Amino acid sequence: MKLIAFEEQHIPILINWIKDEDTLLKFAGIAFQYPLTAAQMESYIEKYPERLIYLVIDDEHQPVAYGEVIPQEDHSARLGHLLIGESQQRGKGLGKQLISLLIEKAKQELNINRIDLYLLSNNDVAAKCYLNFGFKFIDNDFSITYKNQSYAILKMTMPL
Fold first, then answer.
1. How far is the CA of 50 from the CAs of 9, 40, 77, 84, 154, in angstroms?
2. Quick count: other Cβ atoms within 10 Å of Cβ 71?
3. pTM above threshold 0.90
């Protein structure tokens, strides 16, 4: 697997992977509205030019995942909007590979010594993946509200 820069031509691939509201909520919190559209993604990319946004392709050059490295202060970065594309590909270790690729890219492109991420408290599959990779939970009192329901946001970190 390898990272390639996410470009406008890749937007339909990402949209196709977001099959329902729950997937979008776990992917991006309340950053986007369901259904995800090309216009929303184009606006997002334009609004955040500092973010390193990637599509992951497999050895056959097929897209399999999406992820972002978001620069932060204090020599750190945050992984954001991680998604293993097709649902049948999830649970096969691709998340660990995605994280590894993104961290290596972050270390190459940014002068960082720590990587953080946020996730919804009910995203147990992602939490298990991150814990197995070496991330640890740290205190965070942030939450979001979506359709009159509050969701706790967990923060995880890992020194590099």
1. 19, 17, 11, 23, 24
2. 16
3. yes
Cβ-count burial of 66 within 10 angstroms (0-12 exposed, 13-18 middle, 19+ buried)?
buried
And the tokens for 3? 């990272």
Three-state secondary structure along the chain? CEEEECCHHHHHHHHHHCCCHHHHHHHHCCCCCCCCCHHHHHHHHHHCCCCEEEEEECCCCCEEEEEEEEEECCCEEEEEEEEECCHHHCCCCHHHHHHHHHHHHHHHHCCCCEEEEEEECCCHHHHHHHHHHCCEEECCCCEEEECCEEEEEEEEEEEC
Map tokens 């939970």 to a residue.
137
- What mean pLDDT, rounded, does the chain reach? 96
pLDDT category, 92, cuts 50, 70, 90? confident
Q: For residues 54 and 5, is the Cβ–Cβ distance under 8 A?
A: yes
In this prediction, what percent of the chain has a pLDDT beyond 90?
Answer: 94
Number of Cβ within 10 Å of residue 72's Cβ equals 14
The whole-angstrom separation of Cα 114 and Cα 141 is 20
* Cβ within 8 Å of residue 60, ≥6 positions away: none
Q: Which residues pair with 60 in a beta bridge?
A: none
